[in-house]
Amino acid sequence: MKIGLLSYRSHPYSGGQGIYVKHLSKALSYLGHEVSVLSGQPYPELDDSIELIKIPSLGMFETGDRMKLFSLKLLFKPLDLYEWLTVMTGGFPEPYTYGRRVYKYLKSNKKDFDVILDNQSLCGSLLKIQEILPLAVTIHHPITKDHKLEMENAANWKEKLSSMRWHNFLPMQKRVAPKLNKIICVSGPSKEDIIKEFLVDDKKIEVILNGIDIDKFVPGSKDLVQVNKIITTASADIPLKGLKYLILALPKILRSFPKTTLTVIGKSPSNSEVSKIIDKLDLNNIISFRSGISEDEIVHLYHSSEIAVIPSLYEGFGFGAGEAMACGVPLISTHSGGLKEVVGESALEIMPSSAEEIEKAVINLFSNREKMKELSEKGRQRMQNKFDWKTAPGSYEFSLKDVIEMIFEPGVFNRSELVMNSVDETVNPT
């Protein structure tokens, strides 16, 4: 198959969707398919076998001084002008503007593709794309969940207005999702939320669990482990990730284990709620933030950590949990959203939004070496048995075949035959 993988932003170190694009494209290519990633900025890091088709934008979230991007030329480019004005007024136009641009490209180059897989842009242009090409759409989780949690955690009316403005794309996604022919989601709980939030017919949704690169994320030497080091993956300015509750738990943890440190894989924006809490509790020497780092560096951070904590209020899947478990790092995690399906019984479960629960779980685990060993082994085994990227693409392969046959009568259109012939019989599709 010639597969076009759409993603409005795809850098692997800017979030879980970037990781998804990187590994899924590689896995599908490994099965013998021609995979092209049509990405907006920031562009992905891909395997050498993957073609990158750059869909340019103004790149406003990658520039320091956005005012410099304005010129009189924008007045003659309505889409660019819309993008600039929306960002300058606190909105997030990327899904919409990317959709317009990628549709234009596909309309002119549709003969280059057998099937299209969209990575959660949920833009209005998808309805036009599925008129000209077979289309499946991955929805990791409905962003309405993020918006609701931000509104609940907003400190004042200004923050609420800011969240409402940023999520200006949600009405578009709610309109588009029910009209799509085929949706893939990454966990059972995510499917339930998509049905509820987007009013999608459950017959249109297929659950295909994400994978973890268990050959890259492997247990490290015990000599690398730093005593009482905690690791987590979270952006400090996103309430959904629940980082502030882990921060609030640290003072009491430090009383029992004074050598405790915390490494956060993610950005620490200045003047955020979390940064204010860190200053107030005088924890700047205890906590370090690491962002924009390579996959090898991330693996090294896991190898140096004694335990991992995922305090998320909600996750569609939870790559951070899966990567920690694959590295054999004992895990403490909420079971919110898709996390329950990822971690199973291989982690200490905590309730979301509770610093006290985190405090108790961390102290319990630091005090119980046998439990740490047990969770380390169970976590690694679970990733090997259920979440290996080598097996996940087989399900995508069969799903994309079904999308093609949904549009073209089986046995009549030669692309359908191409799909059937490309299937590697050694791959388990279930």
Question: Would you write up a description of this structure?
Answer:
There is one protein chain. The protein has 430 residues and is an alpha/beta fold. It has two domains: 2-211 and 391-422, 3-Layer(aba) Sandwich (Rossmann fold); 222-386, Glycogen Phosphorylase B (Rossmann fold), CATH 3.40.50.2000. Helices cover 43% and strands 13% of the residues. It has helices at 16-30, 78-88, 94-109, 126-132, 144-153, 157-166, 170-176, 188-198, 243-256, 273-281, 295-303, 319-326, 339-343, 355-366, 369-386, 392-407, 414-422, and strands at residues 2-7, 34-39, 51-54, 115-119, 135-139, 183-185, 205-207, 229-233, 261-265, 287-290, 307-310, 331-334, 348-350. Strands 3-2-1-4-5-6-7 form a seven-stranded parallel sheet, sandwiched between helices. It has a six-stranded parallel sheet with strand order 10-9-8-11-12-13, sandwiched between helices. Helix 3 (94-109) runs parallel beside helix 4 (126-132), helix 12 packs across helix 15 (369-386) and helix 16 packs antiparallel against helix 17. It starts with a strand and ends in an 8-residue tail after the last helix. Residues 410-430 have low confidence and may be disordered.
What tags apply to this protein structure?
single chain, alpha/beta, six-stranded parallel sheet, Rossmann fold, 43% helix, seven-stranded parallel sheet, 430 residues, 13% strand, disordered C terminus, 2 domains, globular
